[in-house]
Amino acid sequence: MRATTIHAPYDMRVEEVPDPVIQQPTDAVLRVLRACICGSDLWAYRGEAARQKGQRIGHEFLGIVEETGSDVRGFKAGDLVVAPFMWSDGVCDYCTEGLTTSCEHGGFWGAVGHDGGQGEAVRVPHADGTLVQLPADAASDDHLLTALLTLSDVMGTGHHAVLGAGVREGSTVAVVGDGAVGLCAVLAAKRLGAERIIALGRHQVRTDIALRFGATDVVAGRGDEAVEAVRALTKGQGAHCVVEAVGTEQSMSTAVNITRDGGAIGFVGVPHGSGTGLDLGVMFDRNIALRGGVAPVRTYIPELLPDVLDGTIDPSPVFDLTVGLDEVPDGYKAMDARTALKVLVAF
Amino acid sequence: MRATTIHAPYDMRVEEVPDPVIQQPTDAVLRVLRACICGSDLWAYRGEAARQKGQRIGHEFLGIVEETGSDVRGFKAGDLVVAPFMWSDGVCDYCTEGLTTSCEHGGFWGAVGHDGGQGEAVRVPHADGTLVQLPADAASDDHLLTALLTLSDVMGTGHHAVLGAGVREGSTVAVVGDGAVGLCAVLAAKRLGAERIIALGRHQVRTDIALRFGATDVVAGRGDEAVEAVRALTKGQGAHCVVEAVGTEQSMSTAVNITRDGGAIGFVGVPHGSGTGLDLGVMFDRNIALRGGVAPVRTYIPELLPDVLDGTIDPSPVFDLTVGLDEVPDGYKAMDARTALKVLVAF
């Protein structure tokens, strides 16, 4: 079969790789229908996260089960399923508590020796714990299938961010970051009943999606300018709930400075300097909490799925470019150049 | 009247200062019965926090109301009251929400132009918002009065720490720091029903108090040794709830490393390097939350007071040395040398 591999920074290839086979009785093999490229894949693409030459990549996908190991109980060949961005056994202490990202037998797609999502098929370890069943008729609904793909990462991660930020009915929320996760955080905040949602971002095509997702205000500045603008919108106090969906020093510093005393930052941007942006003295004086991390999206899928199926939320606008598998390298280029927000890979 | 002043690092004096008078109609003047020296006063004592020459100091005290301004409604001369370590108006947005430390008209005792608690009397701004009434007969109960004094800071701060750490019935808690706040956090955790309380500390006289306060385990090592010991006590996972009550790089680093995935650190140690001890990459991977800051103890006094009055909790053992006002400089020396845990000043 064919799959995306990374050979060096900026050197993405689509090449022939071995077909996945069942290795453990708890495995399934899945034929990919939809995959995509994540903002966090760009850390590897740009050489800021190390990868071995030829390593597989991609961690968001859905598709059809082709084969199951002898211990798999919940799925059979032909099932339409979505995979979260990490696999997990579903039975360890952490999985039982819903923290599937800390699973004792969990792992990342594309890790050395494992398939990535940007390929024709994937071996899925711990299929029963990892996969979530989708209605069979969704397979013939192009638009719905695209929306459902966001459950593998960005929609669940946006949901994790707003939970971390403490969003509830009536909240005032500010979202730092206009990537797909930031936009999904806007949608997730709206879904939980936030009254005021301030989206920070400088790209109008993206902030337009934020408005469509429920943002009530857009702040286009950065740094001090952004802080002043958010404070002007919030009686000078800042937002009680703030989402940090970037991971850089500046984005975290902005997040701290726009948080209201006693508020919380839900952080889901993979840290690339954001620790330095965290002024603990300010957080101490103002009782600002920090809560978040890698999102246990597997846990959130059963809650978010019905809302995607019935159209209560439609995260599909985060995809603004569709490519075939052979064009995945072009998709990376487009996301790196920010000419694409998020790239869908259709098989 | 006489009060403690700081003239330079290690130069504490007790000298004649002007008697406090009502300046605002919301003021009260309070005659101090009990005060004490706080671990955080040592930052000023050691020159690590700047003070003006002759500045007043001390932020924990209780006493008798001597005089009230014309707008004070809740108190009259002769009332026995305790003051939290900051004053607050009780009516602003933040006070209404319980975050009295962010009060729009709040401030710290001993700030330039304001009285400190380590003196014979104190002008109390916003008396109605700040002070809390105590039963009159407590004034003649030496032991109880000492226990009640902890409500001005350390007991409320310990309570804030365990709330930040998410302690509840059945929790496993680890407390980093064997100072008075750390010990009060042990007591606060026990009060909220924690099942297992691991106290980290190397001074047996202090960890003995921790055991008396409800600690189930004591870990005497530091750094990696402490981390391993806590993990050995917790199935290798760490504690779900961790209190950081020191504020240094090492204490925060230890706190992060002994927190279970998905757990929370309640931080109340005034940051003096602790930001550097915070590894955001680890916190992200393991979904560790950080929540805390300067404790709004004014809000907690009404909840904690009945338990102190009826003996459900007795935080008084945190005081192990009593001095008169003239001996306050010796009290600082003893706390700096760690020969005293916490010094009570009796008038």
From TrEMBL, chains A, B:
GO terms for molecular function: metal ion binding. The keyword Zinc applies. Residues 25-135 form the Alcohol dehydrogenase-like N-terminal domain. Keywords: Metal-binding, Zinc. InterPro entries: ADH-like_C, ADH-like_N, GroES-like_sf, NAD(P)-bd_dom_sf. Its cofactor is Zn(2+). Residues 180-304 form the Alcohol dehydrogenase-like C-terminal domain. It comes from the Bacteria. The keyword Zinc applies. Pfam families: ADH_N (PF08240), ADH_zinc_N (PF00107). This is Zinc-dependent alcohol dehydrogenase family protein. The lineage of its organism: Bacteria, Bacillati, Actinomycetota, Actinomycetes, Kitasatosporales.
